[in-house]
């Protein structure tokens, strides 16, 4: 049914699409109730752990958006989540994605113990530097800055090409998986 | 219509038909297209090879989804076969809501296959002793951090509602200190959370099995050593299948290797279409400028 959309939109595709949305919603509601809400809230309150009233109230405040007179209350749980998320994420993000990545870009003499590794380390350094120059917009890209940013564009294009190639591979894999299912377990034409 | 206009405006339905034909063809005409092993896949294999037996466990996070099964399921199967062949205990978890059913299926497939050939109790895989599946948890960042202190605090019960304390395997696993590597099989950015939180705070080694579309984002993490090995897409899965076959941990190749033959055919077809489209475009542009 879903593959029939490749020809053109039709009622069979629409039926398949709506069926999927319905099944997915049912699955998520059951999963969240049995694995999250029931053990983490309902059973805790039933056991007399009344501190769990606090997350219950914070959760209910999200629904105040639907009542204009008290809609401002929604800012409380949103503020709580932003504060918690930012406090947790900022140091972890800096450590994992900036400091460690900077360390990985720095070329040290020890890297040249293996010639190939040394060459790749230099290419990474040049690529990172030139790409950063391309995103430096405070000065017109002329002269040395212009040449360097053009090298940066080449690295960016190679990156886009790699991403596109991998995306094609991922999407084709999805089709291969469905064909394997249709020819195998469904039609029994292949093992 | 001129020839260059025809090749640059091929009906998409013809392209879909050709794609389907070239995907199906290798299933009926067996091809042997050689696959080289990429360094990041080899690194993951070598890492698991180097884990001492009777020491630490391998933690696998099953975070793929039904639509990405063709890429991630063969990774899960190959990884489980590798770990069980080396007698490494496996703990499974999930942070994607769609993960639990697929994790249970992957465990069952491998365990049933290996137990079918078991002769003695020692050859058999027993739930709770050799492997455990703890299930899905919401609020994964809090869960990932809390597991650094006490895994049983986060998962007092497993996916099947059994008390985790009752399992011999879990009696010797308290936190990440007993985990040799956490391997995240994911169709979304879950590995990044493992790198940001458990690795930054507790030094957990992280490996990944990713859909191909996610792989380019994680190469910098392999280069810095933050990711100890990576399988990228169906190709990564096929490579891992080949590695465990060559080492004698599996009797035959899995579904990824078969799929890679179709994959290679489709890549050639897409390259041909890209070349045709470009030829059509440049001829059309030249004719336009001449006129």
From TrEMBL, chain B:
Keywords: Membrane, Transmembrane, Transmembrane helix
Keyword field contains Membrane: yes
Membrane-spanning intervals of the chain: 14-33, 265-284
Protein name: Uncharacterized protein
UniProt source species: candidate division WOR_3 bacterium SM23_60
